Amino acid sequence: MAISSFTPTSGAIGTAVTITGTNFNTTAANNIVWFGATKATVTAATATSLSVTVPTGANYQPITVTNVTTGLTAYSAAPFNITFGSTGVIDATSIASKVDSQQEQLHILLLLATLMATVNRIWSL
Asked: Which domains does the chain have, with CATH numbers?
């Protein structure tokens, strides 16, 4: 399983994004997509393409896709760049409410564990 690209590479909350890669599940519900620590909605799926919507709470992190049938996970090489569609003024209406759930916390722990394993492999070289 791999993510080869995604378009657009930046956008606001609610932007439709197409993720291109290999070995995605052809059933949309069997692919879990994360923008950083926030789960996205998968609206369509083929073995090589996923259509998703950027969720509230997405941040400047790689996109993660997990095929729940195979258990395989892929990470984008580059992060998705969140933009703000506003008049240029940042105030209380520019920021969405906090998004927090156990599932997101578990995903963060998975990302940290993966990062630690990678660092340990590099140090052991």
From this structure: 2-85+95-123 (2.60.40.10)
Q: Token pair for residue 65? A: 């896709």
Scored b (16 or more CB within 10 A) or e, 2-29 reads ebeebeeeebebebebebebeebbeebe
- The separation between the first and the last C-alpha atoms of the chain, rounded to the nearest angstrom, is 26
How do the pLDDT tens digits run along the chain, 125 residues long?
999 999 999 999 999 999 999 999 999 999 999 999 899 999 999 999 999 999 998 988 999 999 999 999 999 999 999 987 656 666 666 666 666 666 777 777 777 888 888 887 788 76
Cα–Cα distance for residue pair 63/78, rounded to 1 Å: 8
pTM of the model: 0.71
